[in-house]
Specification:
This protein has no helices and 17 strands. The chain is an all-beta fold and 181 residues long. It has one domain: Thrombin, subunit H, CATH 2.40.10.
Length: 181
């Protein structure tokens, strides 16, 4: 498993398995007038896929960004996230396989943070108020909420360690997401 952070202010695409994926940011409004930071993904100039709420464009980053997760074992699949949603894409068919809504909200954008760590059984994603693991088969293994004040510390012996605002350490199992004091 590999991941790459892509700054939409600098990089506009990636080369992946002999294809070029280009990315462009679009801002659209839903029926209620809410802003949706949207990503348009195009492969080799073919028809594109539009991913709503998929860009991290908060007050804590210099330019809009996304994160891509991919695997050499599943060359036709990619996972893209950054904003309020995680998307699993089939690059051969250029279609969305699955989407997962995160707990992010634009009113909390000043607290936004993203930490991504490669671990033995996949990719651990630590956001401001949640943690999830994408396993080596590119599936969502588990998802847990956390407090904004729970700070990621380290990975050790199959656990992710966090420090709470009361300066107490707790650990989260990488295999199933269970939390231990």
């Amino acid at each position: 498993m590999m991941f790459q952070e892509i700054s939409l202010g600098k990089e506009q695409g990636i080369e992946l398995n002999g294809s070029f994926l280009s990315f462009s940011k679009e801002i659209i409004r839903d029926k209620l007038g809410r802003r949706l930071d949207t990503l348009r993904v195009t492969k080799n100039r073919q028809p594109s896929i539009v991913l709503l709420d998929s860009i991290d464009d908060n007050q804590c980053v210099d330019s809009p960004r996304i994160f891509c997760v991919f695997s050499k074992l599943k060359e036709d699949k990619i996972i893209i996230f950054g904003g309020k949603k995680v998307y699993w894409l089939d690059l051969d068919a250029m279609k969305i396989l699955r989407e997962f809504t995160l707990g992010r909200d634009e009113i909390d954008s000043e607290f936004s943070s993203s930490k991504i760590v490669a671990v033995d059984n996949g990719i651990l994603v630590v956001l401001e108020a949640e943690v999830f693991l994408i396993d080596n088969n590119m599936k969502l293994a588990w998802h847990r909420r956390k407090l904004y004040t729970d700070i990621f510390s380290k990975i050790e012996n199959g656990f992710a360690f966090f420090i709470s605002d009361s300066n107490r350490m707790f650990k989260l199992s990488l295999s199933d997401g269970d939390i231990f004091p």
